[in-house]
Amino acid sequence: MSSSDQNAPRGPIDSSRVPRYAGPATFARLPRLDEVGRADVAVVGVPFDTGVSYRPGARFGGNAIREASRLLRPYNPAQDASPFALAQVADAGDIAANPFDIHEAVETIEAAADDLLGTGARMMTLGGDHTIALPLLRSVAKKHGPVALLHFDAHLDTWDTYFGAEYTHGTPFRRAVEEGILDTSALSHVGTRGPLYGKQDLTDDEKMGFGIVTSADVYRRGADEVADQLRQRIGDRPLYISIDIDCLDPAHAPGTGTPEAGGMTSRELLEILRGLSSCNLVSADVVEVAPAYDHAEITAVAASHTAYELTTIMSRQIAAARDARA
Ligand SMILES: N=C(N)NCCCC(=O)O
Ligand SMILES: [Zn+2]
Ligand SMILES: [Zn+2]
């Protein structure tokens, strides 16, 4: 596709002309959605962290990821693709969720996701705490039916309630299973580790249909083998990937609210994602980046590269579907 093509996607600001540290930050220096009218992939922030059980601050995560993403470049050699040329990727700004009323916030996020998905876009959401995965999954399931879920996290996030609250960052996937919006034949956690409340946590989780690849499994078996196994389980089902940045070791992601020792490296995470490039990824999120605990943007850089790989997967599939129709 030539750059003079009227219909060619509008890509990022050229960092050889405008220094990459200049100007306001959009994801990867891409155009805003209102500048291009429509997008194949909408990158959207959800600055909401009222659902956390420990350190707050993930409400600032989306903008920290945008800032760190200034250094992303347009060609992704690991997937041999130029994601922003294959499809229109644009920054859709933030969803304004009520920080004082979780129920209202969850409704607002779902409605905003309905609007974006209704335009035909796939969503690349930048959190926000993990509570936001529930309304995002509700919206995705309205469009695709129950979806396969790959959940990268130190935590199960299938707990029942905290202090009697049903919507928290530790409970989104139990709610999602209860609501029937997940395809329970293809649910996996990846990167789990650390202490639980009791063995029952694991029994409950298994009953809901989840398979578990712990961070130690990733270390022992390697990223390629793990990706192969996940790909087989997912098949061609519509897939949602939810990435809690605390799936990474605190050495790779200190800027998060509930850190656990013994996590994956950022290299392992990125390699597993690249191994899933053939999956039918309908939308994704990266959550739990809390910049107040970050150092030298370690966490925000890891999150920006994570979102870049996910965006690349979606862009390649959008382009392949378009080519198949032509
Ligand atoms: N989703 C994240 N990051 N953490 C859940 C931890 C819930 C707990 O404090 O037990
Ligand atoms: Zn977590
Ligand atoms: Zn989580």
From TrEMBL:
InterPro entries attached to this UniProt entry: Agmatinase-rel, Ureohydrolase, Ureohydrolase_dom_sf, Ureohydrolase_Mn_BS
Cofactor: binding comment: Binds 2 manganese ions per subunit.
TM helices/strands, residue ranges: none
The keyword Secreted is assigned to this record: no
GO molecular function: agmatinase activity; metal ion binding
GO biological process: putrescine biosynthetic process from arginine, via agmatine
Known EC number: 3.5.3.11
Top EC class for this record: hydrolase
Keywords on record: Hydrolase, Manganese, Metal-binding
Named cofactor requirement(s): Mn(2+)
Pfam families per the UniProt record, alphabetical: Arginase (PF00491)
Residues holding Mn(2+): H130, D153, H155, D157, D244, D246
Residue ranges of the region described as Disordered: 1-20
Recorded family membership: Belongs to the arginase family. Agmatinase subfamily.
Name used for this protein in its record: Agmatinase
Organism of derivation: Streptomyces laurentii
